[in-house]
Amino acid sequence: MDATSQRLLMCRPTYFAVDYAINPWMDPNAPVDAALAVRQWEQLRQTYLDLGHTVEEITPVPGLPDMVFAANGGTVIDGKAMAVQFRDPQRADEAPAFRAWFEAAGFEMYDPKHVNEGEGDVLLAGDHLLAGTGFRTAHAAHAQLQEVFGYPVITMQLVDPRFYHLDTALTVLDERTVAYLPEAFSAGSQAVLRRLFPDAVHATMADAEVLGLNAVSDGRHVVLPAQATDLAAKLRDRGYETIGVDLSELRKAGGGPKCCTLRLRQGKASK
């Protein structure tokens, strides 16, 4: 298995808090250790650097506690960046901040016509885009994704509100293999996944419930929540090298390693 060097965008959780509830993980009455969240995030960032990846940072904005979840800030493929439109007003002001960053970085910009929460719901898997819908990204956004990026888009219907974004229910391991939780998808989407990925790794509900599928793979190394022990063992059996990180504080807002990480794909050679 060959590891692919990646260029990643992250946002330090300087203003992280759980002040509202827009998914089942969030409880504004539960205590949050903001300093611990920063330390856990720094461990994730250092893990990427140790693997040889490039990490760029967007400046956090006061009053936007979920901006740490940079994966929702856009979709970047082949040097094109599609900005986002959040479903919830609490996150709306993140969109222009990320858009400005992409524009300053020189990406070809496209604005969304419908609710679209970026790489949280849009995952490049080989020559297909897997696009989630059901809770956040509108189904109508999938047609625009196909027009902008020129990849066939496969709609994935999510059915469990705990797995509200595609990247909480499925992770792309390499161009041919994914891992996913079957129960998170409709019967039709499960059938499509079996057809597209007959050798997929199936996660248990226990591992999904610690956001084990919210993982980042470079084709050989898989960075995933340390608590997802069964999934890590299955991945090692397939020949992947797993690296567990503890993001338990950020999980209080429904996020894991992938939520914190947006891949910046500059061209076709970097797929």
Uncertain runs are none
Proportion in β-strands: 15-25%
- Number of DSSP strands? 15
Question: Between the first and last Cα atoms, what is the distance in angstroms?
Answer: 15 Å
Biggest β-sheet: strands ordered side by side in the sheet = 2-1-15
Cα shape: globular
Summed over residues and divided by their number, the pLDDT gives a mean of: 97
Give descriptors for this structure.
single chain, 271 residues, alpha/beta, three-stranded mixed β-sheet, globular
How would you sum up this structure, described in words?
- The protein has 7 helices and 15 strands.
- The model has no long low-confidence stretch (mean pLDDT 97).
- It is globular and about 45 Å long.
- The chain has helices at 34-50, 94-104, 141-149, 187-196, 205-208, 229-237, 248-251, and strands spanning 7-10, 54-57, 75-77, 80-82, 108-110, 122-125, 128-133, 153-157, 170-172, 178-180, 201-202, 216-217, 221-225, 241-245, 262-263.
- The strands form 5 sheets. It has a 3-stranded mixed beta sheet with strand order 2-1-15, covered by helices on one side. Strands 3-4-5 form a 3-stranded mixed beta sheet, sandwiched between helices. A 3-stranded mixed beta sheet has the order 6-7-8.
- A hairpin with a 3-residue loop joins strand 12 (216-217) and strand 13 (221-225).
- By secondary structure, the protein is of the alpha/beta class.
- Helix content is 24%, strand content 20%.
